[in-house]
Design goal:
Shape: globular
Structural class: mainly alpha
Radius of gyration: 26 Å
Helix content: 55-70%
Number of strands: 7
Distance between the termini: 63 Å
Strand order of the largest sheet: 4-3-5-7-6
Length: about 575
């Protein structure tokens, strides 16, 4: 290893560990006890926790059929209809969870994802000639993007954006002498493209958009269509990776027919979750600095479509870099010169045009294609482009500055980033409430575990679709996964992919008169009834308790919003 590479490695690791320290501080993970609770315990985080637990137990293996006998009772939950590309990521987390625990694994994955993002962006910045000091701050801010804290483990698959700098490396390389670069670096380009294809599909989509732009650019520059071949080849490899990752879904659809209900998509979502360019600039309504907080609140109050803001916010440094990018692009165009600013601005404008409200995604929606409905997620690619451009400018300005000046400025920018980009930390009251919910679920799980044999079936109310069910009362889409996450070896009625007959069985049973429902459950050998009372009115809950008492089912457990009743013959 050369001296230059050694210094780069040491500094890169230092930045990555600093990023890890900030994430740990933000989520109050400073104690061993804190790691035992997930940093987010609601909505989609429960779904991804269920997937990781299934992978831990050997029920979620890449390329193979995805069935889980612990869900979808009295049948076996079938997840083959719901495409998740990043199977290997869940599998790795499942293996780790066997040794460190489910919740610790999810928390650790968030920290590791941020560290990897810092490492890859630092590497790319150094690769394009940015000084170490400027590369350090760009990597630090990219890893701690507002996007990371907004998504958190609630969008487990999206916080793993650490490969975005790698895909930009391919795009940058092919944008300059693409055929020559392709001949020299076919293997790393192919491996990166394959990696992109096996991770979240949105990032693959943004990669393909940039490859299309690169191909058009090379054709315009060289007047030869052959210059577009490398970009097309890389795009084909990425698409192949995507198809391989979803082979289980594709094979199952061929064998059993298409399930149009498996993935619920509304045409309006293409605009609801599209990128609004202003969202890149507007801070969140819970920003730490009151003037920016007021701006965020005013913007949200006046907005008709809220979408997923403020995940698209670039941060103060990112916004300044974007403004400088626009200003220098105008200067270059005024001088009739095509420089780095214009090239970077062209990529940003291309992505914004494709992913904004009324952009390409809206056209896809008109044609009935909604796979890329959440196009606002392109903001993390735009942030990478703007930070790299800002790092280049900073690197040039640092050229004649002393080291202490450079690192002093880097330190100030780092403090600004930590103060600006992470979301407002939850107060003690919010944290206490979330921990109370976790402890309640653990107590319910302990009751079930202590009173039921392994393999016993539990019927859950209210009956809900999976995945992406509309809320019922205050019961969120994936709340019925909660007892599954806190027990071992039991079988629950929730969790079968909607759209197939087995998944629909629970709904007519739940709609029966209570005495008839209990008889049906006994006939199908269910040993317990689990009720999330938030899905019912108080008078409906009272009637349930009366029916249970009149039926002689007095062995029950009630805590908080949950009621669990053991059915006859359920003694362990």
């Amino acid at each position: 290893m050369t001296e230059r590479a050694r210094k780069d490695l040491i500094l890169c690791l230092l930045v990555a560990w600093t990023v890890a320290a900030v994430v740990v501080w933000q989520y109050r993970l400073g104690s061993a006890r804190a790691w035992d609770d997930p940093v987010v315990y609601k909505e989609d985080s429960l779904f991804f926790a269920a997937v990781v637990k299934a992978a831990r137990d050997g029920y979620y293996v890449p390329l193979l059929s995805k069935t889980n006998p612990q869900l979808g009772a009295p049948f076996i939950a079938n997840w083959n209809d719901f495409p998740l590309t990043e199977d290997w990521l869940y599998c790795v987390c499942g293996l780790v969870a066997r040794y460190v625990g489910l919740w610790r694994t999810l928390n650790l994955s968030l920290v590791v994802a941020a560290m990897l993002s810092a490492i890859t962006l630092f590497w790319l910045a150094r690769r394009i000639g940015v000084r170490r000091s400027a590369a350090s701050i760009a990597a630090f801010l990219f890893a701690l993007a507002p996007y990371l804290f907004y998504r958190s483990i609630n969008h487990f698959h999206l916080v793993h954006y650490w490969h975005v700098p790698l895909l930009l490396f391919v795009v940058f390389s092919l944008g300059h002498r693409s055929r020559w670069r392709w001949r020299r670096k076919r293997l790393p380009f192919a491996l990166i493209a394959l990696l992109v294809g096996t991770l979240n599909v949105y990032y693959m989509y943004f990669f393909l958009l940039l490859l299309v732009l690169t191909a058009l650019w090379r054709i315009a520059q060289s007047k030869s269509v052959r210059e577009a071949v490398p970009a097309v080849a890389v795009g084909a490899i990425a698409a192949t990776g995507f198809l391989i990752s979803n082979v289980d879904t594709l094979v199952y659809a061929c064998q059993h027919g298409r399930n149009p209900e498996a993935v619920a998509r509304d045409p309006k979502n293409s605009e609801l979750y599209a990128l609004r360019p202003a969202d890149l600039l507007i801070p969140p309504r819970r920003h730490r600095w009151w003037p920016l907080r007021r701006v965020g609140r005013a913007y949200q109050a006046e907005s008709v479509i809220l979408g997923e803001r403020p995940s698209s916010y670039l941060g103060i440094v990112g916004v300044v870099s974007l403004v400088l990018l626009g200003a220098l692009t105008f200067i270059e165009l005024g001088r009739n010169r095509l420089g780095s600013a214009t090239r970077s601005a062209g990529m940003v404008l291309w992505l914004v045009g494709a992913c904004c409200v009324g952009g390409l995604n809206s056209l896809y929606g008109l044609g009935g294609f909604y796979l890329f409905r959440g196009a606002n997620r392109v903001s993390i690619v735009i942030l990478a482009l703007t930070l790299l451009f800002g790092a280049r400018l900073l690197s040039r300005w640092f050229r004649d500055r002393r080291a202490w000046t450079q690192w002093g400025i880097v330190g100030v920018l780092a403090v600004v980033g930590v103060w600006d980009q992470p979301s407002w930390r939850d107060g003690d009251e919010t944290i206490t409430e979330e921990r109370r919910a976790i402890e309640t679920d653990r107590a319910v799980g302990s009751f079930l575990q202590a009173n039921l044999l392994s393999g016993a079936m539990v019927f859950q109310l209210p009956a809900m679709d999976c995945p992406e069910s509309p809320w019922i009362g205050r019961v969120e889409s994936y709340d019925l996964f909660r007892p599954y996450l806190h027990t071992e070896g039991l079988r629950f009625s929730f969790g079968n992919n909607k759209g197939r007959p087995d998944a629909q069985w629970q709904f007519p049973v739940a709609a029966m008169p209570f005495d008839q429902m209990l008889a049906t459950l006994r006939t199908n050998r269910f040993q317990a009834l689990y009720v999330d009372k938030r899905g019912y009115r108080p008078d409906e809950v009272a009637k349930m308790k009366q029916f249970l008492a009149s039926a002689g089912l007095n062995r029950h457990f009630e805590l908080g919003d949950f009621l669990v009743a053991l059915l006859a013959g359920s003694d362990p």
